[in-house]
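Protocol step 4 of 6: structure prediction from sequence.
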Amino acid sequence: MRWLKFGFFIVILFGAVYAVSMFFVAENKNFTIEKEIAYPVDKVFPQFTNLQNFARWNTFFSDNKNMKVEFFSPYEGKGSSMTFHDMKDEDVFGDVFISYENPLKTLKYQLFEGKKNTPYLIDLKFIPKGESTKVIWYIQTPKQPLLKRSLNLVSEDFFVESVDQSMKKLYQILGNKVDKETRRENLKFDSLIVEEQESQLLLGVNVSAKNVKDALFKSIVMNHNKVLNFVKMDLSKKDDEYGEPVLITDPDNFKDKEVSYFYGIPISKKESVSDNNFSFRTLNASQNYVIFYQGTYANRIKSIQQIINQAKKDSMRIGDLQQTFLEEPTTDGKVVLKLSIPVFK
């Protein structure tokens, strides 16, 4: 009985010491984090003001496979918002709002976490430095009740680590995005070139469609959306985890009344796929004759024939036609394509 009383006394003593010590800890905490990223501000700012972009590289959201996020209109700038919740941990949920925007210069976020009525205030300042951008994070944590103020002692370390890892991921995403844009700007359309193609693993669908009027292209748009949704939603792939869609078909079948094709999206490795409508296909490394084409989908035929005729002139055997959509196919019928045919002696 004496030990029980002694233990109870110790608990009370430590509780009292803790409560007194919390008087010396601020109700909330303010701190600043500065990071520099090697891309210009016009590339960096849209990754913050568009919350769908923000959620892809911010590790708090992107590294948690159980995190579900929803976005609400407007999807970028002042007034945009998103909600999040962990599907396996009911205590992890909240909302993010953009309360202020000065384009390319400043942003203000409000982050409400759990059932708290007061938000984290996160102000961002963007300072252009030529081809680089300094991003300054000003963070103010919510006021904490007396017995929870110890959380303020670790909040800065948590944010510093999260911002550091997130900015590294943003750098990788921007690297892929900017490099792709640079390559696009340097494309020479309608000129035949020879290219060494690396092997690719595609996940997609086998399709047959009528080749009358715009029926074929409507089929392509429908199956593009079908495959893209499966890759993004069912396989949880982010933008930087898959490549540009490829349509594979016989080079001469544009003459046929019905066209059979495989439409797939490149991914890094095979994964378990429960839906039998989807299958994998490997494109082997090869030397290809290539033409970049821009215009209506129906008018691509002249460029395809140009590749076939050049292969015949060079006494080369040809493989299947690969049509890589450098821009997503949409209902207006206009496309930017990389038309590519493997050639062999």
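Step 5 (inspection) to follow. Residues 317 and 344 are 5 Å apart (CA to CA).
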